């Protein structure tokens, strides 16, 4: 297989790929195109981070292209990565507010970084806030809407009761209203704050955020309960949920990590609720320690890890007791989770589910490398950030 690429500046990315295999019968051209584009954006992510792309990295990118077992006949694409959505001839773009509110980037970054510096747990909260917003009605900030006497909103749904970071979004919105009244949407603030919260650790933006979202006005707790992925879901259910939003298996692994494990990266005391970020209460995973009702552990769980969990949890579960979501807990944003997962030390059923399908299992293996994981995570966040977007036109 041949692979040729060329990357220009990190504002523009021209990529040419030529791949040939023996099988020339595959007709799934759309899947080929989608996953090739994903591989190209990985290359773009490396260039954006000013990381040298050598032969080894090219092979890694090719490996990711093959993760979904596509038999590529011939792919010849020239891609300019700049914008992805069109609004009546205008675009969802990183420069949407260039004229109407040019200081938006500085304001969001300044407030977010200062808040995360004071309370690192906010990084996970703001990222999870963005995730939960996008998975219900798209990225429209409907998760910020308060409940009323006649309607229970998304933020009060059971999966969202542990969500935080609302005060940070409010502070950013207040400052932007002073500088650019009635210009910046809350949906764009949520997306930018999530990116900047994670990026604080690295001192630079870790993925590009397109702006121009329009805020939604409908928020229903029933939709949040229905649409948000469950920690007890199997692979088929997870894949169907993600596919319904235009996300593939690579996105599933990367974003499931952000949803169910991102909090472990910032396992610090949360002064707001007086507990720990990055934990699950025993009741959530109790069935994994009593798979058939006879006290036997889920066979997909490492025996020593299962025994450790039993020492932490009582029967029936004590609601006050919780366990770290990651057996390799770290206080930094990294790929340690995937190392533990491959050793059957994923705490939740949805963790283990990622190893039950050969395609996602290969992604998990690949994501043990930090640069591979981070490039894919950034791409998946960018894709998630445009789910169901209600586009605006710049004024």
From TrEMBL:
<comment type="function">
    <text>Removal of H(2)O(2), oxidation of toxic reductants, biosynthesis and degradation of lignin, suberization, auxin catabolism, response to environmental stresses such as wounding, pathogen attack and oxidative stress.</text>
</comment>
<dbReference type="InterPro" id="IPR033905">
    <property type="entry name" value="Secretory_peroxidase"/>
</dbReference>
<keyword id="KW-0560">Oxidoreductase</keyword>
<dbReference type="InterPro" id="IPR002016">
    <property type="entry name" value="Haem_peroxidase"/>
</dbReference>
<feature type="binding site">
    <location>
        <position position="229"/>
    </location>
    <ligand>
        <name>substrate</name>
    </ligand>
</feature>
<dbReference type="GO" id="GO:0140825">
    <property type="term" value="F:lactoperoxidase activity"/>
</dbReference>
<feature type="binding site">
    <location>
        <position position="142"/>
    </location>
    <ligand>
        <name>Ca(2+) 1</name>
    </ligand>
</feature>
<keyword id="KW-0812">Transmembrane</keyword>
<feature type="disulfide bond">
    <location>
        <begin position="282"/>
        <end position="313"/>
    </location>
</feature>
<keyword id="KW-0479">Metal-binding</keyword>
<keyword id="KW-0106">Calcium</keyword>
<feature type="binding site">
    <location>
        <position position="136"/>
    </location>
    <ligand>
        <name>Ca(2+) 1</name>
    </ligand>
</feature>
<keyword id="KW-1015">Disulfide bond</keyword>
<keyword id="KW-0472">Membrane</keyword>
<feature type="disulfide bond">
    <location>
        <begin position="101"/>
        <end position="180"/>
    </location>
</feature>
<dbReference type="GO" id="GO:0042744">
    <property type="term" value="P:hydrogen peroxide catabolic process"/>
</dbReference>
<dbReference type="InterPro" id="IPR010255">
    <property type="entry name" value="Haem_peroxidase_sf"/>
</dbReference>
<dbReference type="Pfam" id="PF00141">
    <property type="entry name" value="peroxidase"/>
</dbReference>
<keyword id="KW-0575">Peroxidase</keyword>
<dbReference type="GO" id="GO:0006979">
    <property type="term" value="P:response to oxidative stress"/>
</dbReference>
<feature type="binding site">
    <location>
        <position position="138"/>
    </location>
    <ligand>
        <name>Ca(2+) 1</name>
    </ligand>
</feature>
<feature type="disulfide bond">
    <location>
        <begin position="134"/>
        <end position="139"/>
    </location>
</feature>
<feature type="binding site">
    <location>
        <position position="140"/>
    </location>
    <ligand>
        <name>Ca(2+) 1</name>
    </ligand>
</feature>
<keyword id="KW-0349">Heme</keyword>
<feature type="active site" description="Proton acceptor">
    <location>
        <position position="132"/>
    </location>
</feature>
<comment type="similarity">
    <text>Belongs to the peroxidase family. Classical plant (class III) peroxidase subfamily.</text>
</comment>
<keyword id="KW-0964">Secreted</keyword>
<feature type="binding site">
    <location>
        <position position="133"/>
    </location>
    <ligand>
        <name>Ca(2+) 1</name>
    </ligand>
</feature>
<keyword id="KW-0376">Hydrogen peroxide</keyword>
<feature type="binding site">
    <location>
        <position position="154"/>
    </location>
    <ligand>
        <name>Ca(2+) 1</name>
    </ligand>
</feature>
<protein>
    <recommendedName>
        <fullName>Peroxidase</fullName>
        <ecNumber>1.11.1.7</ecNumber>
    </recommendedName>
</protein>
<dbReference type="GO" id="GO:0005576">
    <property type="term" value="C:extracellular region"/>
</dbReference>
<feature type="binding site">
    <location>
        <position position="334"/>
    </location>
    <ligand>
        <name>Ca(2+) 2</name>
    </ligand>
</feature>
<feature type="domain" description="Plant heme peroxidase family profile">
    <location>
        <begin position="91"/>
        <end position="395"/>
    </location>
</feature>
<feature type="binding site">
    <location>
        <position position="326"/>
    </location>
    <ligand>
        <name>Ca(2+) 2</name>
    </ligand>
</feature>
<feature type="transmembrane region" description="Helical">
    <location>
        <begin position="67"/>
        <end position="86"/>
    </location>
</feature>
<feature type="binding site">
    <location>
        <position position="272"/>
    </location>
    <ligand>
        <name>Ca(2+) 2</name>
    </ligand>
</feature>
<keyword id="KW-0408">Iron</keyword>
<dbReference type="InterPro" id="IPR000823">
    <property type="entry name" value="Peroxidase_pln"/>
</dbReference>
<feature type="site" description="Transition state stabilizer">
    <location>
        <position position="128"/>
    </location>
</feature>
<dbReference type="GO" id="GO:0020037">
    <property type="term" value="F:heme binding"/>
</dbReference>
<dbReference type="GO" id="GO:0046872">
    <property type="term" value="F:metal ion binding"/>
</dbReference>
């Amino acid at each position: 297989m041949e692979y040729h690429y060329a990357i220009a500046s990190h504002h523009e990315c021209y990529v040419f790929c030529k791949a040939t295999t023996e099988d020339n019968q595959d007709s799934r051209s759309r899947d080929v195109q989608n996953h090739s584009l994903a591989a190209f954006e990985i290359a773009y992510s490396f260039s954006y981070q000013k990381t040298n792309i050598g032969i080894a990295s090219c092979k890694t990118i090719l490996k990711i292209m093959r993760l979904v077992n596509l038999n590529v006949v011939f792919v010849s694409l020239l891609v300019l990565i700049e914008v992805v959505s069109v609004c009546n001839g205008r675009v969802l773009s990183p420069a949407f507010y260039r004229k109407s509110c040019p200081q938006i980037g500085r304001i969001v970054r300044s407030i977010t970084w200062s808040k995360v510096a004071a309370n690192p747990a906010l990084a996970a909260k703001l990222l999870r806030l963005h995730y939960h917003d996008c998975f219900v009605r798209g990225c429209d900030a409907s998760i910020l809407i308060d409940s009323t006497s006649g309607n229970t909103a998304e933020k009060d749904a059971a999966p969202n009761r542990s969500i935080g970071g609302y005060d940070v979004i409010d502070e950013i919105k207040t400052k932007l209203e002073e500088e650019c009244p009635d210009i910046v949407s809350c949906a764009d603030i949520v997306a930018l704050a999530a990116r900047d919260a994670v990026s604080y650790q690295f001192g630079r933006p870790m993925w590009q955020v397109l702006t121009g979202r329009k805020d939604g006005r409908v928020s229903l707790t029933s939709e949040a309960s229905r649409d948000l992925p469950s920690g007890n879901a199997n692979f088929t259910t997870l894949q169907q949920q993600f596919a319904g939003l235009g996300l593939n298996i690579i996105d599933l692994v990367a974003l499931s990590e952000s949803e169910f494990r991102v909090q472990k990266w910032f396992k610090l005391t949360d002064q707001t609720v007086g507990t720990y970020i990055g934990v699950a209460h025993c009741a959530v995973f109790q069935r994994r320690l009593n798979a058939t009702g006879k006290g036997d552990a889920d066979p997909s769980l490492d025996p020593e890890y299962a025994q450790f969990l039993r020492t932490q949890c009582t029967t029936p579960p004590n609601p006050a007791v919780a366990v770290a979501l990651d057996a390799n807990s770290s206080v930094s944003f990294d790929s340690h989770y995937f190392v533990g997962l491959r050793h059957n030390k994923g705490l939740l059923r949805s963790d283990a589910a990622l190893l039950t399908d050969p395609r996602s299992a290969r992604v998990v293996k690949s994501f043990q490398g930090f640069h591979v994981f981070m490039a894919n995570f950034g791409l998946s966040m960018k894709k998630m950030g445009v789910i169901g977007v209600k586009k605006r036109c710049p004024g």
